[in-house]
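Re: weekly structure request thread

Next one in the queue (147 aa):
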Amino acid sequence: MEAYLPLRWIAEQAGHEVVWNAAEKRVEIVVTQKEGGLTVLEPGQLSAEEQAFVQSVYKTPGIHQKGDLFVIARGEVPHPGYGVKIAGTEWSWEQLIVDVKWTDPEPDKMYIQVLSYPYVAVRAELPPFTTILFRDADTKKELFPTP
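Done, posted below.
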């Protein structure tokens, strides 16, 4: 029994490009995924609807999603010396792994004592059927695992 697969379609759905290499006289599949596939966003880069979403979730610890927009929220902290940043990304087959770093206050630095809610908003441009995993940059364990 023979099975035929639409290889071009499969490759394109995975975010790759199919090209003809004239010098080698062969078809090649070129990985065209953007490095990281993730864009860290500033508030001015968000639509009014996205800004409203961020405002509704940034105080609640966790990973919050609306379409391709993700908000990684640390929750309440005692001052602005604490933060959240994206430490790096890597691809693992059909999964984008995002390392998130909780930043802590600098030693011997004074901070105004005011409640803060550190978060980072990112846009993930993922090929179809790709998942995303947010993990702690230090422990490599999933952030906010689901029970």
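The CA atoms of residues 100 and 139 lie 10 Å apart. Helices lie at 7-13, 48-57.
Next request, please.
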